[in-house]
Design brief:
- The chain has one domain.
- The protein has six helices and 13 strands.
- The protein has helices at residues 2-22, 79-83, 98-105, 111-115, 129-138, 142-149, and strands spanning 36-40, 46-52, 55-58, 74-75, 90-92, 108-109, 124-125, 177-178, 185-186, 191-199, 204-211, 218-223, 233-234.
- The protein is globular and about 40 Å long.
- The model is unreliable at 1-31 (pLDDT under 50).
Length: 236
């Protein structure tokens, strides 16, 4: 009688465990945010990556001078050529100065280089407008996300650097931009501006902008002849 009772208890416990483990609602929800890894681009540049919510982002700006199929991206210094590149993918260092601007800020890419869909390493892509929205929502919305993405300890941002404690690990830096109008550089240390892969039309695409003096992240429309920074996000 005792043996039968013990066996009955074991069966009941086993069935309960099996039911618990097979029901997704009862499985423990693990938050992988903050996990750090790295990836390498076709040039051999190594980038830190960071898990933020359900996404995995590069925590540095892209520096590759080649598309992932090996095609060299034209590096344009001349202002007049930058203004009218046709639909040619193009890159530049801020102020055409790799010594002072390459390590912290990466290349500035025009929108036609994003349109190739070949900028990021295999298994990664330039974030879509929706990818940026998911990141922004996870960080509390437009009013807070910019402050959480900025590097609060960096001396690169102009004063005042309105930010939150940087426990996210995105390390957004203010790389400025190169305007399609006259090919002029502007806003270094004041803004960070990153492309999305989502086009509004043939000449404009959406991007995200962070200013030094507030905690907002703003969705903007940028001419594809502009030069902006790029981050990559891992494919789902």
């Amino acid at each position: 009688m005792l043996i039968i009772l013990v066996l009955s208890i074991i069966i009941l416990v086993s069935q309960s465990c099996e039911s618990f483990l097979s029901d997704p609602k009862t499985l423990p929800q693990i938050d992988y945010s903050g996990q750090i890894d790295s990836i390498v681009d076709i040039d051999g540049n190594v980038y830190r990556t960071i898990v933020i919510g359900s996404q995995i982002w590069m925590s540095e700006n892209l520096k590759t001078s080649k598309l992932k199929d090996g095609t060299i991206i034209s590096q344009i210094k001349d202002d007049s050529i930058w203004q009218y590149p046709g639909r040619m993918p193009a890159i530049c260092w801020y102020n055409n100065d790799s010594i002072n601007y390459s390590k912290a800020y990466g290349f500035l890419y025009n929108g036609f280089s994003v349109d190739t869909e070949l900028l990021c390493p295999t298994g990664w892509h330039v974030p879509s407008d929706s990818d940026w929205d998911i990141l922004t929502d996870f960080l509390g919305g437009d009013e807070k996300a910019g402050g959480k993405l900025k590097d609060d300890e960096s001396n690169l941002w102009s004063d005042p650097n309105h930010s939150y404690v940087n426990d996210i690990g995105f390390f957004a830096n203010p790389g400025g931009r190169r305007r399609h109008i006259e090919g002029k550089f502007s806003d270094i240390n004041d803004i960070g501006c990153w492309w999305s892969s989502t086009s509004k039309n043939e000449l404009y695409a959406y991007a995200r902008l962070i200013y030094h003096d507030n905690t907002f992240i703003s969705k903007i429309e940028s001419n594809k002849r502009d030069g902006l920074s790029v981050r990559c996000i891992k494919d789902n």
